[in-house]
Amino acid sequence: xxxxxFQEVNSMINKRLKDVLFSDQWSELCMDTLSPSGYVLVAxxxxxxxxxxxxxKYRHLPFLRGVQTQSxxxxxxxxxxxxxxxxxxxxxxxxxxxxxxxxxxxxxRNLEQRMEDFESILQQQxxxxxxxxxxxxxxxxxxxGDLNFRIEDYDIHVVKCAIDSNxxxxxxxxxxxxxxxxxxxxxxxxxxxxxxxxxxYKFDVGTHTYDTSAKKRKPAWTDRILWRLxxxxxxxxxxxxxxxxxxxxxxxxxxxxxxxLYRSHxxxxxxxxxxxxxxxxxxxxxxxxxxxxxxxxNKEWYKVSDATVRFTVASxxxxxxxxxxxxxxxxxxxxxxxxxxxxxxxxxAAQVTFSEEDLPxxxxxxxxxxxxxxxxxxxxxxxxxxxxxxxxxxxxCRSDSSDDSSEDDSTLVLLAPNSRSPSPKTGKHHHHRHxxxxxxxxxxxxxxxxxxxQGLSLSPRSKExxxxxxxxxxxxxxxxxxxxxxxxxxxxxxxxxxxPGSGVTAPxxxxxxxxxxHRPAQVSPPGVKQMGKTGEINNI
Length: 540
Fold this sequence. Notes:
It comes from Takifugu bimaculatus. Pfam families: Exo_endo_phos2, SKICH. The protein is built from ten helices and 24 strands. The protein is of the alpha+beta class.
């Protein structure tokens, strides 16, 4: 897995409006970089400039369940989201894990405020269902971000001299976070690897030189990655209480975390901070690795009658009327990046069939996924499927006058706010062709979004676009919501975060460095997971 935390992402008004309508630039770049390697966005949460992204190999998706996210504002007394924390939690192969990305108050004098804000974040972030309702209730917690802890007592000259002479242990002793871990009860149990890299703040932007401005900020390790283990791990899932206690004790009790790498990336100069990454292995005492839904499909679809998906639901899984089955291209980006979907109806042993017009025409491999609305995750995946259904004549399509049509004469190509995508329609059809969303989770629009959309204009859909409609025979007039900026350039933002002189986007280069250069030499036993890049986890 890759778990990536950002702080101080551009959150100006015009930028935030674009991020409401589309996914933000950093999410797009990370998905573009990781999806070709088989990683799928599992969860994302943004609060103004604080952003958290969680990616996993797609084959692990059925075992990452109960995905939930939270955010807590602490800026301006809890009214502003420039400071605070965003989190994502899920059960990973049966073990609750939480990722918490924070941006805490700055300046040397605000140590007490940092501790108060962190405690407030932990108290306010509560999750629904299960035993792990609070952040610290999880078997494993990863806490990271711009925590803003400083180096006390020593003046700037002593600190710089210690850095230049590589006497970093002298500075560890006066690091506020190291000292607070001894005195603050809220930090009990939190662990951190050795700070073997120089302080990551503050640099002149575009250089490797510590702050030379009039303020002359003292160098500090503001950017940190910590983890915490619960004393007793999750019990082995069984209905027999005595057997459960015995198995849990025999299997080792708790999850174990091993850190393989903790480093800074000093080559980046696009910020006054240097990025920090870590790589971990999670050793589980047991694994829940039976999918809640098993899908059975034909390996090759050459005709419409092959497009049937049979699924069997585990007795422990409570289905929802909002569950659905979707067709994904191998290498899809997130759970809404489907080619087509249909609602999952029927009894525990049931099947669904895709109509001819819903089937994708690209000659490539696809997989079928069962999405659980209650668990906010894909809980069942099929083996790869080759779809080569020929496109029949237009007479095979639905008539415009069909009573079954669920389309209005005027359709806006824009996701509804906070929709349970895919969203229900009023017609009889339960099959829907996907017009791909750029956003895996579109934030809620204001109750009256029209003033915020004055820069957008309505224009008739061109005949060329009409020919690409999901219903080739449809003669209904459609309109598309078009941004004048989008016509000029497909780029969401005129500026891409690029490391000077590299010609490579920052997320691509950083992730490539982690994947290609820093893998543990030893091979972990089966069932072991690795975690890094503000945590990265790879299954061995």
